[in-house]
Amino acid sequence: MAFPSFADDAAILLAAVGRKEGSRTTVRGVIGTWDMINVDVPSREMIETAAGALQRAGLVTIDGEWSLRLTAEGARIRRTPRSVSMRALPGALRRLLPTLSPDPAVVLPEEIYDEALADYLGPRPPLRVLLWRALRRR
Q1: How confident is the model at residue 1 (pLDDT cuts 50, 70, 90)?
Q2: Who wins on pLDDT, 137 or 62?
Q3: Average pLDDT score over residue span 31-55
Q4: Is 87:39 a contact under the CB 8 Å cutoff?
Q5: Mean pLDDT in the chain?
Q6: Of 28, 45, 92, 128, whose CA is between 20 and 30 Å from 134?
Q7: What pLDDT score does 5 carry?
């Protein structure tokens, strides 16, 4: 179920950002959620273009470490669809988005994207190791 257009990329990105105003979402989190929704890992350019358009529209802010945060308006739009699955959420959000245009001034540094992608695609420790670590923290 690949979404073919720029507006769909922005809707997927908005769905990938946390629901609450000000909650921080990393590029790693965006990649993982985007993959879950769209069954495809987004390119650096896809994230960069969608994030720039959402920032230009006043729906998200991007900090220096490339963490994305919803603005009050972005949080309102993100909360609006009710009883919608994560896979259907981008379609519902797309209907609520204002007209978007890319912001060429927004650039996702390659090193941030590459590190996030490597972390997402990298091997995970076995479940027993994760359980052991969790038990030790208590």
Answers
A1: very low
A2: 62
A3: 94
A4: no
A5: 89
A6: 28
A7: 63
Cβ–Cβ under 8 Å, residues 30 and 56:
no
Neighbours of 73 (CB within 10 A): 14
Vertex 76: Cα angle to 39 and 102 (nearest 5): 60
Tell me phi and psi for residue 66, to 5 degrees. 65, 40
Nearest one of 94, 95, 100 to 11, comparing CA atoms: 94
Tokens representing residue 48 in the block: 């960069």
Q: Please state the rounded mean pLDDT for residues 112-129.
A: 87
Residues near 31 by beta carbon (within 8 Å), at least 6 away in sequence: 41, 42, 47, 116, 117, 120
Give the DSSP letter string of 37-97: HHSSPPPHHHHHHHHHHHHHTTSEEE-TT--EEE-HHHHHHHH---S--TTTHHHHHHHHP
Buried b / exposed e along 79-105 (16+ C-beta atoms within 10 A): eebeeeeeeebbebbbeebeebeebee
Which pLDDT belongs to residue 42?
95
